[in-house]
């Protein structure tokens, strides 16, 4: 069947594009395509100040992460002049798991250098706009090109000849600028939302710490003008009207189910490590894992509303003892051997308060400190049982849980909005970069 080309479009090696667009090899519209080297001596040459030295971990999808940037001294930099970063350079990761990520050099790294894992692409600005190029490289079309150079779909590395051979659909300069501005505006909106979400998450973590330790009391609790005093306890300094109990006084513990891998993928729902690690509260729809088990195993490793699960083992102590609470009745559900079940002995804790009460920095520090570590970090019921937990009166627990839940809901709405904008940008990229949608 003959492909029908829309009026005003033409078929090229880069696909169907507008007649006024060119189809050019990246090497034909670039002043420079090349990477750097790592200084002799490696990390010993890195400094706290000097010329920024950009590595692949600093180059993300369309943006730079300079939180772990390192620097090199003047004498090292002068030997790397050929890899000096200039304004509007596009940086492309060319090796390893991050291959294909690209970003534009900003003012913070101009005058710095790149290592051998990062390629500098310096487009001829009168021919190819840097924002347009960077956006094309990280788009599905650009990534398809990068994938095509990898043997067997295994992303191993790009060489300069391959990069130079990438075909770019190139609009007239004024249209490139319009596309770049539209995508930059959407990128700025996304970046602003990401910063707002990050700020609110940091604020929430501080509020959690204050509320769960009684440093801050909600309206109606703590007496008039918070007149109730404080006391020193095993759990720290807490309000005088709060109780303190060990986790072992509140919960009984049980290790989870261990089965060979061939039993997984079908059968009974199972609460897994990532279910616990990724969410503070679980309902039936959150549990996607399945395992084939007997009726006796379902009974022995059952899951009930109000159960708390802790991650039991991990590569690092910081990932151990992360908790979630089961928020609804779950029929015929079991739990994995990589997690630990804590079943309430009493009704001292509100079920929704349980979602938060193990996540204050003080309690997390105690949980992490109680871990054992050989080849992997590990916790168990005996270790967790000794940790003291501050317990507000039940009405205050409910109020705290609701306050924190409202903060979570606000953040979740912002995240949903962020995901919507990201999807819109992906759609814009797909259409604008091949001329399916025109701005001018």
Automatic annotation (TrEMBL):
Annotated Type I restriction modification DNA specificity domain ranges read 18-195, 239-413
User: Which SUPFAM superfamilies does this one have?
Assistant: DNA methylase specificity domain (SSF116734)
Residue ranges of coiled coil: 404-431
Q: Does the keyword Membrane apply?
A: no
Keywords on this record? Answer: Coiled coil, DNA-binding, Restriction system
CDD domains the UniProt entry points to: RMtype1_S_EcoJA65PI-TRD1-CR1_like (cd17256), RMtype1_S_EcoKI_StySPI-TRD2-CR2_like (cd17517)
A Pfam family found in this protein is Methylase_S
Alphabetical list of InterPro entries matching this protein: Restrct_endonuc_typeI_TRD, Restrct_endonuc_typeI_TRD_sf, Type-I_RS_S_subunit
Q: Which family does it belong to?
A: Belongs to the type-I restriction system S methylase family.
Provide the protein name: Type-1 restriction enzyme EcoKI specificity protein
Per the UniProt record, the source organism is Sporomusa silvacetica DSM 10669
Gene that specifies this protein: hsdS
């Amino acid at each position: 069947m003959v492909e029908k080309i829309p009026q005003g479009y033409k078929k090229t090696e880069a696909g169907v594009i507008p007649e006024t667009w060119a189809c050019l090899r990246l090497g034909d519209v670039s002043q420079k395509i090349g990477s750097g080297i790592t200084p002799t001596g490696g990390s010993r040459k890195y400094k706290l100040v000097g010329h920024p030295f950009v590595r692949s971990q600093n180059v993300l999808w369309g943006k730079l992460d300079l939180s772990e940037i390192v620097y090199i001294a003047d004498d090292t930099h002068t030997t790397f002049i050929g890899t000096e970063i200039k304004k509007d350079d596009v940086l492309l990761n060319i090796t390893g798991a991050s291959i294909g990520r690209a970003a534009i050099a900003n003012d913070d790294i101009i005058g710095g250098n790149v290592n051998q894992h990062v390629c500098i692409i310096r487009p001829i600005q009168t021919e190819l706009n840097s924002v347009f190029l960077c956006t094309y490289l990280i788009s599905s079309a650009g990534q398809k090109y990068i994938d095509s150079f990898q043997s067997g779909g295994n992303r191993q590395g790009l060489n300069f000849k391959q990069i130079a051979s990438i075909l770019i659909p190139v609009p007239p300069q004024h249209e490139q600028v319009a596309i770049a501005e539209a995508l930059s505006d959407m990128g700025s909106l996304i970046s602003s939302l990401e910063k707002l979400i990050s700020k609110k998450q940091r604020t929430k973590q501080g509020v959690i710490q204050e509320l769960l330790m009684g440093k801050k009391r909600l309206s109606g609790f703590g007496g008039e003008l918070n007149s109730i005093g404080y006391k020193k306890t095993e759990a720290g300094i807490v309000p005088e009207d709060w109780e303190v109990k060990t986790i072992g006084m509140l919960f009984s513990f049980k290790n989870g189910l261990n089965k060979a891998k061939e039993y997984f993928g079908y059968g009974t729902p199972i609460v897994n490590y990532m279910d616990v690690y990724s969410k503070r509260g679980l309902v039936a729809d959150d549990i996607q894992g399945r395992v084939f088990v007997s009726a006796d195993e379902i009974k022995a490793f059952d899951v009930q509303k109000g159960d708390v699960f802790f991650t039991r083992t991990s590569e690092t102590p910081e990932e151990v003892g992360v908790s979630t609470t089961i928020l609804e009745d779950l029929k015929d559900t079991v739990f994995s051997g990589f997690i630990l079940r804590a079943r309430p002995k009493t009704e001292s804790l509100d079920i929704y308060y349980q979602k938060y009460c193990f996540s204050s920095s003080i309690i997390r520090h105690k949980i992490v400190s109680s871990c054992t570590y050989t080849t992997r970090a590990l916790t168990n019921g005996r270790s967790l049982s000794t940790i003291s937990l501050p317990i507000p009166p039940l009405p205050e627990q409910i109020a705290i849980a609701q306050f924190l839940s409202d903060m979570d809901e606000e953040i979740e709405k912002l995240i949903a909005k962020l995901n919507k904008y990201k999807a819109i940008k992906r759609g814009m990229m797909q259409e604008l970069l091949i001329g399916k949608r025109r701005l001018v």
